[in-house]
Amino acid sequence: MRTLGLDVGTKTIGVAASDELGWTAQGVETIRRDSENPESDWQKLKKLITELEINKVVVGLPKNMNGTIGPSGVACQQFAEEVKERFGLPVIMWDERLTTVAAEKMLIAADMSRKKRKKVIDKMAAVMILQGYLDSSS
Question: How far apart are CA 103 and CA 126, in angstroms?
Fold first, then answer.
């Protein structure tokens, strides 16, 4: 069984999954959210959860630098609650402060063009969220 990592934003959801031993996180995809049909986002997640045999979900929690939770954090908490209700899986909220910044720096260091970075940044942030969780629980 595997763990799914999600970097939830208003326009995209970065998705990563652990290996079966729960040691490493790999990027899966970036889901482009459909504001016209939000149900399609849930259908895509359901498909991934089924195909990858997911048994736990880690959702990034964007906190302010002082540790408080702002509107983005509240939206992620609501998203996590809906994941629990829809899929009946345990959901862990994981502090994601600076993961997108770290992912951006890693991609720049890999000499990736700005256009390509934009396509994978959310997936990389999901990898960093999930890997942080996996490292802490091993």
Answer: 9
Burial (CB count within 10 angstroms: exposed 0-12, middle 13-18, buried 19+), residue 22:
middle
For the chain, where are the alpha helices, taking DSSP H only? 39-51, 71-87, 99-109, 114-136
Question: Going by C-beta distance under 8 Å and a sequence separation of 6 or more, which residues neighbour residue 76?
Answer: 8, 59, 60, 61, 62, 93
| Domains along the sequence of the chain with CATH | 2-136 (3.30.420.140)
Tell me: the pLDDT tens digits for 10-46?
999 999 999 999 999 999 999 999 989 999 999 999 9
pTM for the model stands at: 0.88
